[in-house]
Design a protein that fits this description.
The chain is an alpha/beta fold. About 35% of the residues lie in helices and about 30% in strands. The protein has two domains: about 5-145, 3-Layer(aba) Sandwich (Rossmann fold); about 150-250, OB fold (Dihydrolipoamide Acetyltransferase, E2P) (Beta Barrel).
Length: about 260
């Protein structure tokens, strides 16, 4: 029986590299690939792969969120793929989970693959299949705060980590979001609604259709016409808050 393998990564080049390294292996059958977590949630129960290569940082839904949304019986053996995320690396090592650090080399790839094969064979011969380390890791994630603590920005081959506590505001910019920290601005590919769900509502509030602000950055509020409010941040940046969003902001400020 061949090992059915699914590749999940939002970067085309990363998927191609995994596929290139897997192709010569007679034990592996690549059953598919996808570029986001939502497609992965459909394909994993449908294809029932034995092994997945799972990118941690993907727009819309992270690799961790993919696993958290699967039933236990649908979770295959996982090799995580990540790009310089210190939190992820530490978590993997503590829980004895295998991972590939981008850009990974051939020798490191085959070392992870060999370990995964042994784990798959062990699970298939066991009365109670499954990876206890992985399940314990997912339980830890569920008990921790689900609020986003950092953003990962990929730009021109670099990976930049932004702490959410340092964000001043986030503004819609076409198909992207502009994340403002001081005088710096970073673009991420996500919708305002998606990022709003991930941020701590006690710290970040949406004030109109296009802007989310950090409550700690508010300096003043002034009433405008028709129930709207002008919000002035400590940087002197000014925004208009629509009256439809007023109650949510006042509730977050305990006013």
């Amino acid at each position: 029986m061949k090992i059915k393998t699914l590749i999940i990564d939002d970067m085309t080049l990363a998927r191609k590299r995994v596929r290139r390294y897997l192709n010569p292996d007679a034990e592996i059958e690549i059953v598919g690939e996808c570029a986001n977590g939502h497609d992965a949630l459909t394909m994993i129960p449908e294809l029932k792969p034995d092994l997945i290569f799972l990118d941690v940082q993907m727009p819309g839904m992270s690799g961790f969120e993919v696993l958290q949304n699967l039933s236990e019986e649908d979770i295959p053996v996982v090799i995580f793929v990540t790009a310089y995320d210190e939190f992820a690396l530490q978590a993997f090592e503590v829980n004895a989970l295998d991972y590939l650090l981008k850009p990974f080399i051939r020798d490191r790839f085959y070392k992870a693959l060999t370990r995964a094969k042994a784990q798959i064979k062990q699970q298939k011969s066991a009365v109670s299949p499954g990876d206890p380390q992985l399940h314990n890791f997912l339980k830890q994630l569920k008990t921790e705060s689900n609020h986003l603590k950092r953003l990962v920005v990929k730009s021109n081959g670099r990976v930049i980590f932004l702490l959410t506590d340092e964000i001043d505001w986030i503004e819609a910019a076409g198909n992207y979001l502009s994340v403002r920290i001081g005088k710096e601005s970073h673009l991420i590919r996500e919708t305002l609604s998606q990022i709003e769900q991930k941020l701590d509502p006690g710290k970040f509030v949406r004030i109109n259709r296009s802007v989310i602000i950090n409550l700690d950055r508010i300096k003043e509020m002034h009433p405008l016409f028709s129930g709207d409010q002008e919000i002035i941040l400590r940087s002197e940046k000014r925004f208009t808050m629509s009256r439809n969003y007023r109650d949510k902001l006042l509730s977050a400020l305990n006013m």
